[in-house]
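Session log. Operator J.P. requested a structure for one protein chain; no other inputs attached. Running the standard single-chain path with C-alpha cell output.
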Amino acid sequence: MARTILSRYLNPEVLSRIAGRRIEPRGLVIGNLAGAHKSPLSGFAVEFAGHREYVWGDDPKHIDWRVYFTRGKYFVKQYEMETNLVCHFVLDTSASMRYGDDSQQKLQYAGQMIAALGYSIIRQSDKVSLATFDEKIQSVVPPSNSMAQVIHMTELLDQSEAANKTSMADCLTELVGRMKRREVVMIFSDFFTELEPLEAALQQLRYHRHEIVLFQVMHHDELAFEFDDMTKFVGLEVPDELLAQPDQIRDAYLRAMNRFNDDLEILCQRNRIERVLVDTSLDMGTVLVDYLNQRSRLNRGR
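Structure written below.
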C-alpha cells in the first residue's frame, strides 16, 4: 500500500531533475543534528557550550539527566557546531484546492511538490514536517529526517480531502506556537483568503525569524480564464452559481485576479516573504528546477 501511495506522489523523473540541488536557508538556522548549515547559536557536537530548555522536536538523547534531577525540568546539552535545516510544509486542504482534474488538480499538484521537496531535503540529512489545514489544523507530521518520513507524509497527503472552507490566518497563528526555533516554512495554497488577517499571521512567523515561502498553486483556468462556451461557474467554498458567457466577464475577472495577485505580491515584499506562483499545467520538474536555481542564485548573492 505504501509503495502504491509513494508512486502517486514521487515521480522518478522529477526527483532525478532536482537531485543534487541543495535547499539552503536564506539565513542562519537552528537545529539539533549535525548538518551543513551554519548555526547562529550552538548545537550538539564536540565543544560543550551550555544548556537550553528542551523544546518539542529535540532528540531526547541530548537531555542532561543530572540537570533534570536537580531542577525538575528537561534541559539539553549544547555544543558549538554547524546545524541542520528544519523545513515545515503547510498545505491548504480547503475546498478551493479541489479545482482541476487528475495531476493538474491544485491539491494533488501541491502534494506532489511537497513530496518531491521533502524527499530532497531528507536526502541532504535535514528535517521536514507536514501540517494540513482548512477551517482548522487537520493533521501534523512532526519533523524528522528519516526516509520513513516520506511515507508518513505521502500517506497523510493521500488521506487529505478538500471539502471545507479555509481559516488560513487562524491556522497559521496556531502553527506559530508549535514552531520553537528559527526555521523554514513553506506554505502551499491558492491563498484565496482575506489578505489583512493573513498578513498579520505571516508577520507572527516573521517575528520569530522564520523564513517563509508562499507557493501560490493555481490552475491555468484561474490564471488565463480561457473558457469559450456558455459556462456555469459553481463556488467551491460558497454556494453561489453563475451562468455566463465567458467573453462577457473575462476582462473583469482577469482585472480582479491580477489585482489580487499584485496585492499578495506587495504583501510579500513588504514582509520579506518569498512568493512563487505555480501554474499546475506546467511540468513540475521544470517548476522545481527553476525555483531551486533561482533560490541558489539569490543565496550566492547574499
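Operator note: Residues 44-80 form one domain.
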